[in-house]
TrEMBL record:
Pfam families: Mito_carr (PF00153). SUPFAM superfamilies: Mitochondrial carrier. Keywords: Membrane, Peroxisome, Repeat, Transmembrane, Transmembrane helix, Transport. This is Peroxisomal adenine nucleotide carrier 1. Solcar repeats lie at residues 5-94, 104-184.
Length: 234
């Protein structure tokens, strides 16, 4: 079986980038997850905002507990991004080869992104469930990956899979928006360039900016489902 080296390279780069960003932002992600999954009792909540979660960790001298489950989250993030980037790149390349088109349209892009996202969700759901359970456990009382997953039966590890499949629209929206913004930016850049110059390319800053915009749009549109998934995984 031939290996798609270009897709493999893109997948590896995306996975490594995700690994770094996940590690840097993990304490904030833990605060967010605990805040979202906070169980309500007597009409009151334990945390009023994300700052309360951070202050609790500091007051209990459990700041390092903000990193509980980091290994599982990094594993989940790496596998998730690798599977998604590889699947997306492979399906996109296959579509272009079979269709004969030089570029991919919005509708086809959505379908390809959703298909790659569905494969990713199924492959990484147990790790995502375990990570959420670790993050929402009491500070300093997080269990290991296997112990966390075996607390119930294995079907429990796939709790929230239906919502995760629904959330495949998140990367689908993100990469569709990014691709469309990228095409517009490159077209404008090429139109303003002198004739005979080399093909236009995005600068690192512009790629970062477009990525941030597309991710923000996708997150805003799917936030209700993300919150429900965090609560159901707890």
């Amino acid at each position: 079986m031939n290996v798609d080296l270009e897709s493999l390279a893109e997948a590896t780069s995306g996975a490594i980038g995700s690994l770094i960003s996940t590690t840097i932002l993990y304490p904030l992600d833990t605060c967010k997850t605990k805040y979202q999954a906070e169980a309500r009792s007597s009409g009151r909540t334990k945390y009023r905002n994300l700052t309360d979660v951070l202050l609790e960790a500091i007051s209990n001298r459990q700041v390092l507990s903000l990193y509980q489950g980091l290994g599982t989250k990094n594993l989940q993030s790496f596998i998730s991004q690798f599977v998604y980037f590889y699947g997306y790149s492979y399906f996109k390349r296959l579509y272009l080869e079979k269709s004969g088109y030089k570029s991919i349209g919005t509708k086809a892009n959505l379908v390809i992104a959703a298909a790659a996202g569905a494969c990713t969700a199924i492959a990484t759901q147990p790790l995502d469930t375990a990570s959420s359970r670790m993050q929402t456990s009491e500070f300093g009382k997080s269990k290991g990956l296997l112990k966390t997953l075996t607390e119930g039966n294995w079907s429990d590890a796939f709790d929230g899979l239906s919502i995760s499949l629904l959330l495949t629209s998140n990367p689908a929206i993100q990469y569709t928006v990014f691709d469309q913004l990228k095409q517009r930016a490159l077209k404008n850049k090429q139109d303003n360039a002198d004739k005979g110059t080399s093909p236009a390319s995005l600068s690192a800053f512009m790629a970062f900016l477009l990525g941030a915009i597309s991710k923000s749009i996708a997150t805003c549109l799917t936030y209700p489902a993300i919150r429900y998934l965090n609560v159901s995984s707890n």
